Structure of TetR family transcriptional regulator:
Amino acid sequence: MAVTEIDLAEAGPRRGGRPTRAEAARREAHLIAVATTLFLERGFDATSIDAVAEAAGMSKPTVYARYRDKRALFEAVLRERIAAWLAPLSAAAEAQAAQGGSDDVETALEDLSRTLLAHGQSPGAAMLKRNLVAQALQFPELARLAHEEGWLRGVRAVAQLLAAFARRGRIAVADPEIAADLFLSLVLGRSSQATLYGIATDPEAQERRRQAAVRLFLDGVRPR
């Protein structure tokens, strides 16, 4: 087997000291990226620590030094994927909420709904969700993690945006978190179900549904 960059990194700095923080971070990111690919391609059951170590160019003891078992590694992958999905969602919601002079609720929700669909329907997101559903009974704490760190954090990010518009009198919502949960369900519900089961969706029909979801939500929260 050829010597890889990871093999050299495992050996540490040339002078025999410990790896730098930057080297350790690169090594960790590489391991998670490889594990993510294998979990998504093969599923949880068919992916082994041996396979991850070999694909990453690391020794098994090195992997086990970071993660005690496959479940811990899968949890790390899940956390990384949740963060990757939440980052643009939270950033979009927070940016809109910070724009105190902007009263264009419809444009904000149109943009946010497009972001939601783009990330929620990516092939990687769908495959990860299938892996999670398949393991939910065996590892309920992972399903709880996805719900709390994924869905609920997404709800809170959207609620922040809705609360900002409510303070400016652009919408009327008694509970921004409930309204955010309903908005996410309207936008993602059907398409998320279809991607979970591997059912192809027509882009034009999906776009019409997205627009209708935003209009329906706005009709329900406009001040009377």
Notes: Residues 70-98 form the longest helix (29 residues).
